[in-house]
Amino acid sequence: TKECLHTYCKSCIYKHFQHSTACPSCKTELGPNPFENVRFDRTLNEIINKIFPALVAKDLADEKAFNESMGLMTNNSNERESQRENELENERENELENERENELEN
User: The pTM is what?
Assistant: First the structure.
């Protein structure tokens, strides 16, 4: 979070924000829309996605359901979901390309 700098995987913090708007560790109140005070950690997210690849689709569905339940859906939400899916696909393609290059070098 931006306020207290605690770090969580995306799916964990989404689940937590379904019933609270405070940091799970220190209980710092993050306001009515806690996602405004969450900073995305790309490195942690990439690690989680590599370890648990099935979570990507589930996270998108959970995020959409949460946003709808909180009345946070905007006209750009589907566009953002598509953009995230494209980014994840590009990351997977880059990883495969890097693996192929490493295999050729060895």
Answer: 0.45
